[in-house]
Amino acid sequence: MIIPVVDFGAYGLTEKDVSEEQLSNLGKELKKAFTEVGFVFLKNTGITQEEVDHVMDISLKFFLQPDELKQPFSRKSFLHNTNHGWVSLETEKLNPRRPGDLKEAFNTASFQPDIKWPSSGPLKGFQEIQMSFFQHCKELSLRVLRVMAHSLDLDPEVFVTAHRLIGTDENGTTLRSLYYPPMNSEKAKKDQLRCGEHSDYGSITLLFQGSEGLQVQARSGDFITVSCVHGAVLVNIADLMQRWTCDQFVSVVHRVLLPPARDSSTRQSLAFFVHPDDEALITCCDGSSKYPPVTAGAYLQERFGESYGKS
Description:
There is one protein chain. The chain has six helices and 14 strands. By secondary structure, the protein is α+β, with helices and mostly antiparallel strands. The strands form three sheets. Strands 1-2-10-7-12-5-4-3 form an eight-stranded mixed sheet. It has a four-stranded antiparallel sheet with strand order 6-11-8-9, with no helix packed on it. Strands 13-14 form a two-stranded antiparallel ribbon.
């Protein structure tokens, strides 16, 4: 299983216009990747490695604080958006059959003015840096969604119009800064991983990796370690998009293993989870009834219940 690398420069964020021929060529490459593999590396997107490093640097400063300083920013602390905020170690189980994941996260999911953000000392600018990166990821995602629709000979705006509310509390799209702390694998609980086997919930995911560690399940059932491509973003199909496209685009299971014994390295990544608007009704785009209609918001809450518990 080889994840293809596609040059997205013709429709990167620095480009105002794209020709039909360029759209068609990009569409062919993305369609091949998303129907056969479910993942693709995009290079020359307009999001620079320097910007990614900047977000990771200030995120790391947050994660390295004592837990009592992170606690006021905990997920479920904010009335308008219960997904916004810090997720502590072992809180989330992306594979409910395993112990809690050995990772922390900070979810940027709401821009409400009364949301409290880390801002003291070295965390000055935290909010602005996260929000700016969120907006750039949003712009890139909408371009990818447009190419995807074009590749299936659909109305080019069919996916984009269902994501008009990204950045509001009526849409579940979330930027997650993820931190995998040093871990003695011999002291981990039985069957515990840094991130349990799962497929993503929404439309697509953009992933920016700081180091290797991600594994993707091939059609054979074997897990394959994904390499890092400097300056590229890894994009994958999520479950709602597989339903939407009636299994033309495939959502693939992935995980992050524990480091080898006596390896005390940390891992960081930034994941932009793209979801349709809460009230968007997802039906099979080919007109079939292979999957029943579902609203994106209800589907997302059902999946959160599986990974965080039903509380």
